[in-house]
Amino acid sequence: MGSEEPRTNFLRKFVEFYQTHEIAKPLIPLLLLIAASVALAPHYFLAPMNIKVILMQTTPLALIATGEMLAILMAGIDLSVGSTQAATAMLAAIITKSTGNLGLAVAVAIALGTLVGAINGTLVTKLKIYSFVATLAGLVIWRSFVIIVSGGRLIYGLSEYSVFLNDYGTYIPMGFLLALAVIIGVYLLMTKTTFGRYIYGIGSNEEAVRLAGVRADLVKFLAFTLAGALYGLGGVMLIAMGGFAVDPWSAQGNELNAIASCVIGGIALTGGTGHPLGPLLGAAILTILTNILVLLGVTELATQQIFVGIVLIAAAASLTRGLRYVK
Amino acid sequence: MEIGRGSSTTALSPQITEKDQVLLLAKDIVKKFPGVVAVNHVTYDLKAGEIHGLLGQNGAGKSTLLKVLYGIHRPDHGELYVYGRKVFFKSPRDAREHGIILVHQEVTLMPHLTALENIALLGFMWRKWGARFKKTKFKLYIEDILSKFGIELDLDAKVRDLSVAEKMLVQVATALSMDARILLLDEPTSPMSPKEVERLFDAMKRLKARNLGIAFVTHRVNEALEICDRITVLRNGFKVGTVESRNIDAHELVKMMLGREASEVYMVRDFSDIDKVLARTREEVPLIELRNIVTKPQSPVEVPLKNVSVKVYRGEIVAVFGLVGAGKTELGKTLIGLTKVVSGEIRYMERRVKIKSPADALRLGIMYLPEDRRSEGLIPGFTVVANMDISSLKEYTKWFMVIDRRKEEAAGNDMVKKLNIVTPSLYVKVPKLSGGNQQKVLVARAMLTKARLVIFDEPTIGIDVGAKAEIRRLIYRYSREQGVSVLLLTSEVDEALGLADRIYVMRDGRILGEFINKNLDRDTVLKVLVYGK
Ligand SMILES: Nc1ncnc2c1ncn2[C@@H]1O[C@H](COP(=O)(O)OP(=O)(O)O)[C@@H](O)[C@H]1O
Ligand SMILES: [Mg+2]
Prior knowledge:
The complex is a heterodimer of chains A (327) and B (533). With 327 residues, chain A is mainly alpha-helical. Chain A has helices at 4-20, 24-40, 42-45, 48-73, 81-99, 102-125, 131-150, 174-192, 194-211, 216-241, 254-264, 278-295, 301-319. In chain A, 73% of the residues lie in helices and 0% in strands. The longest helix of chain A is centred in the N-terminal third of the chain and has 26 residues, at 48-73. With 533 residues, chain B is of the alpha/beta class. Chain B folds into two domains: 20-261, P-loop containing nucleotide triphosphate hydrolases (Rossmann fold, 3-Layer(aba) Sandwich), CATH 3.40.50; 265-288 and 314-339 and 355-531, 3-Layer(aba) Sandwich (Rossmann fold), CATH 3.40.50.300. Helices cover 35% and strands 24% of the residues of chain B. Chain B has helices at 62-69, 92-97, 115-122, 135-149, 164-177, 194-209, 221-227, 250-258, 263-266, 274-283, 328-334, 358-363, 373-377, 384-389, 405-419, 435-448, 465-482, 493-499, 522-531, and strands at residues 22-33, 36-47, 50-55, 77-82, 85-87, 100-103, 182-186, 213-218, 230-235, 238-244, 288-296, 308-312, 317-321, 340-348, 351-353, 366-369, 453-457, 485-490, 502-507, 510-516. In chain B, the strands form four sheets. A six-stranded mixed sheet of chain B has the order 6-7-8-3-9-10, with helices on both faces. A six-stranded mixed sheet of chain B has the order 16-17-18-13-19-20, sandwiched between helices. In chain B, strands 2-1-4-5 form a four-stranded antiparallel sheet, covered by helices on one side. Chain B is globular, with a radius of gyration of 25 Å. The interface between A and B is medium-sized, with 22 and 29 residues. The structure holds adenosine-5'-diphosphate and magnesium ion. Magnesium ion (MG) binds at residues 62-63, 105, 187 of chain B.
C-alpha cells in the first residue's frame, strides 16, 4: 500500500504532463524509440557515425515539416513541398555549377522557395482556392519546372555543399545546427509573437478571428510564404545531405513525409493545435525508425514504409482521440 | 423485398391512427448544457391530425426540445411516451423505428443525387444495406405516396437543382416513405420565400388531413397563427404556455414570446442623464450614420436590408429591436463590411467611408460582437486572455511583433476584476467557462480595443438570468464611463427599454419606427413591431 503511493503519483504526474504539454505527444514516443533502438542494437545505433547520419537525414525533413506545419496549423495543407524543394535544389545546383558561388546559390534557392510560397498564399487568399488544390497545382507545375530547367539530367559533384557536413569533431553537422537555429526561430515566432498567435487562431476558428478585426488574409499569405522559404532551405540541405547531387525526381513524395512528420509531431490536421517543435521531433522519429529498421536488416524500402504507415496511424489516432468523428 | 412498412420499420406504430389520439407526449423534460438549461421542465404533446407549433426566440430551446424527441439528446429529466407507451431513445435510430422523423433546420440531403435516390436511401431503404436499387419499382412506390398526399416533386431532378421548399418536401417525402406518423420540422420556413412557404403549408395541411402529427418550429408569429392548431410558446428554456391558435392574436403571442422580465433584470439604467446624451443628437454630428442602405443577400438565410437609415451619436446607446429575421445582424454586419451594399452610404463623422472588412471597421474604431458566440465569437483553442486581446494584440507588444506577456496578463487580470469573470485562471481554454462568462470575455475583447462604437448582437442570448442583468449593467456602465457609443441589436423589448437612449424598431429588413426612450410605453413599441405603425 505504502509503496504504491509514490508510483501512482508518478504515473499521475506523467499523465498530467502528457495531457498538458503538447510537446509530450512526439517527445515521449521519440524517447521510447531511442531507448528501444539502444536496447536492440546498442553498438550500431550509438556509433557516432550513425548518430551523424541520423542528424543528416533529419535535417531537410525537419525543415520542410516545419514549413508544412504552418499550413496545417491554419487547417490548410501544402502539397507543393516536394516539388518546391526539388526546384530550389535544382536551381541552387545549376547556379553552383555555373558560378561556383555557394552563397549566391543558397540565397537564390531560398528566394525561389519564398516566391513559390507567396504564389501559394496568393492563390489561397486572393483567388480563394482551397490550399489543397492550389498546392496540388504547385506540385505538378514545379516538378515540371525542375525537369525543364535540368533538361532531365542529374547534376552531381556539388562538393561545395560539404561545408554543411562539417562537424569539427562533434559528429553534429553544421547543416543540422543551422536548421535547428532556423526551427527555433520559427518556434519563437509561433509562441512569442502576434503572428504566431494569429496562425493558431485561424486554425481554431477563422471566422471569429476575422470578425475580431484581424487581417487574416495577410497572416495566411505570410505563413505560406515563410513555409516556402523553409522549403528553399530544405532544398539546399537536400543537396548537402543527399550526396551532393540533385536529380529531376529528387524529393518526390516529400510532401507526404512532411505531413507525416507533422502528424507524428502532434500537429492536428484540423488546425490550431500542436507544438511548433513537434515536426522536428516527428522528422526525427521517422528518420530513426527507418534507421533502426535498416540496422535490424529490414533494408527493403517497401517493408520500411509499412512500419512508417503503422506509426502514422498510431500518431493520427492519438491526435483525434475524443473527437466524435473526423472526415 | 417488401417496400416501406412491413419489414423493419415502425413495428410499434399502429396501422390506423385516429384523429386526436395522442401520438407523442413529452413530460416534464429538462435538458442542460454547460452553463445553461436549454429546456426547463417542458411538457409537450402531439395529437394525430394536428399541427402543434413551437414558437420562441433564438435560444428559447426549440431545437433542443425536438432533438430530445428525436433521440439526439438524452433528457436529464422527464419522460417520453409514444402511443401511450413509455419509451427511451438512445439514438435517432430508436426514434425512427417509432415512426418519428426530424427534418433538420439545415437541409441534410445528398445534393448530387436525385430526389428519388435521396428519398430511397434516407427513407425506406434506410439500413437495408446491400439491397438492390430497383429504380422503376421505387419510383412507382414513391409517386404513389406523393400523390396520396398531394405533393408535387420531380423525382429525377438532382437535389442541388431544387429550390429550398422542394428540398424540404424531399425530406418530408423521405419521412412519408418510411411511414412516419410524427414529423418534427425545425424552422423549415426560415430560408423560404413567401411563395415557397405557401407550398410547404399546403403539403402540411394534406399530411394533417391524413392524421399525421406535425411539430412545427418557428420564430415567426404569423406563420404559427396561420398553420398551427395549437401553439406552445417557449422562452429561455421555459414553457410560457400552450394556446389554441383561434383564441389568440399576433399581439398577444408576441407578448408571450417576449415575456416580461423582472424589472431589476433589465432596467439597468437611470434616466437622469438621458437629456444630456440626447442633446448631442441636436448639437453634434453623428459618429456613424447609415443612409438608405440597401443590401443584396449572399445566401438564402440572409435578410436583405431595404432602405435602412440609422444614426448613432457619440456616447449614445442605440437599440435596434426586432424579432429573429428582422435583419438586425445584417445591419450590424453592414457596419463591418460583411454585406453586399448595392445602394446607400455609410458616413463616419459626416465623412463618407467604405468599410470592406472587420479589420477596416476596427481601424475606424468599430467593433462587432457576434450573436453566435460559439461559431463566430470565441476561439476555442485560445485561453481566456488570448480571446480577450485578439482584437487589440498590437497594444501588448514589446517590440515589433513580440507579445509582452506581462502587459497582456495585467490587462487580462484587470478585465477579470472589472467584469467579475469567473474563471480558474487567465490561462484556461475559453470553452471551460460558462455561457455568461464566455460572453463577458467577448465584452472584454471589445473594451480592450478602445473602440468608439461597439455593436452588441444579442449579447444576452442563451445565458442565465443573473448573467443577463450583469452584462447589461456592464454595457451601460462601459458606455457611460468611457463615452463609447453602443449599437445594441436585440430581440428583447425589455433589454432595449432598460438600456437604450434611443430605439429603432425593425422588421423584414426595414426600420419601422424610431423612439426616444423617455417615458416610453412598452406596448407602443410592440404595436409598431406587430402592426407596422
Ligand atoms: N450542443 C450544445 N451545447 C451547448 N449549448 C447548447 C447546445 N445546443 C444548444 N445549446 C444552448 O441551448 C440553448 C437553446 O438552444 P436551441 O434549442 O438551439 O434554441 P432555439 O432552437 O430555440 O433557437 C441556447 O442557449 C444554446 O446556446
Ligand atoms: Mg433552433
